């Protein structure tokens, strides 16, 4: 196992039990069986490790949910959205615990800004889903519906995470689809108007330039062993520099990389860049 990955996995175990603040670098290195010097070769500080963990998990779930929203059929979309999200966080219970706990307790500005960034990307995906499913029906209530969906996900998530119960994800998704449809089709009074939402917006840097994407792809290509995913990244980079491939081929290249854990964020950014094509 790569040392950086080992540190992330072992630190996550400690953070889930003790929280960020109560866990020291010494405890992490003891848990990993490495020296402090080895730790600082991978991470400049505990804060950098924490932010790297957040990026690792949030990039993966953001990319996966974005793909579902853009590719599921309408009659399956809400179900797939809820089901995939809950299954992801249940699979990564340690991260889910600290994700919920630390958001309410942290005073770290960089942590807060990073979580707000991913929260806004999540809201953007939910809005896309709502507009696609309900159209004019939710013209005046769609922003309220975003917050309703987020509240469903948070409260039901806390229920099964705190009780450690066996979860019937299919039933859970079905019940939330029913509740969401009822709200979407019967809400008449809106509280969160577009103007109100804009007043409470914080700016995030969503746009990644072509040059930045090429740099990111170059770094991933250097890190990866020979594989179909690596070859696909090379072709996608060439397509960014000089477009020659058909939309169908580009879509196929996306399919090659989108499930690779180290390529999901690049797939997400490229999908957004090529949204008119795929």
TrEMBL record:
GO terms for molecular function: DNA binding. Residues 1-61 form the HTH tetR-type domain. Transmembrane segments: none annotated. Residues 24-43 bind DNA. InterPro entries: Homeodomain-like_sf, HTH-type_Tx_Regulator, HTH_TetR. It comes from the Bacteria. Keywords: DNA-binding, Repressor. PROSITE patterns: HTH_TETR_2. This is TetR family transcriptional regulator. It comes from Lederbergia citri.
């Amino acid at each position: 196992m790569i040392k950086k990955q080992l540190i992330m996995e072992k630190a996550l175990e400690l953070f889930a039990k003790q929280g960020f603040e109560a866990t020291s670098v010494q405890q992490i290195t003891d848990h990993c069986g490495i020296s402090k010097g080895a730790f600082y070769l991978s991470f400049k500080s505990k804060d950098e490790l924490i932010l790297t963990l957040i990026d690792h998990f949030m990039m993966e779930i953001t990319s996966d949910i974005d793909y579902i929203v853009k590719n599921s059929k309408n009659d399956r979309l809400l179900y797939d959205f809820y089901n995939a999200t809950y299954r992801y966080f249940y699979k990564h219970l340690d991260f889910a615990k600290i994700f919920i706990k630390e958001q309410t307790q942290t005073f770290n500005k960089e942590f807060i800004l990073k979580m707000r960034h991913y929260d806004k990307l999540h809201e953007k995906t939910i809005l896309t889903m709502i507009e696609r499913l309900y159209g004019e029906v939710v013209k005046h209530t769609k922003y309220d519906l975003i917050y309703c969906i987020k509240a469903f996900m948070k409260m039901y998530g806390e229920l099964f995470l705190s009780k450690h119960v066996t979860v019937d994800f299919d039933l859970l998704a079905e019940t939330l689809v029913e509740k969401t449809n009822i709200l979407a089709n019967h809400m008449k009074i809106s509280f969160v108007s577009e103007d109100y939402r804009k007043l409470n917006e914080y700016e995030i840097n969503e746009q990644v330039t072509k040059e930045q994407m090429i740099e990111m792809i170059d770094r991933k290509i250097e890190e990866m062993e020979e594989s179909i995913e690596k070859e696909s990244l090379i072709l996608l980079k060439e397509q960014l520099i000089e477009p020659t491939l058909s939309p169908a081929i580009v879509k196929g290249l996306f399919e090659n990389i989108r499930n690779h854990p180290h390529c999901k964020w690049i797939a997400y950014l490229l999908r957004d860049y090529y949204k008119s094509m795929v």
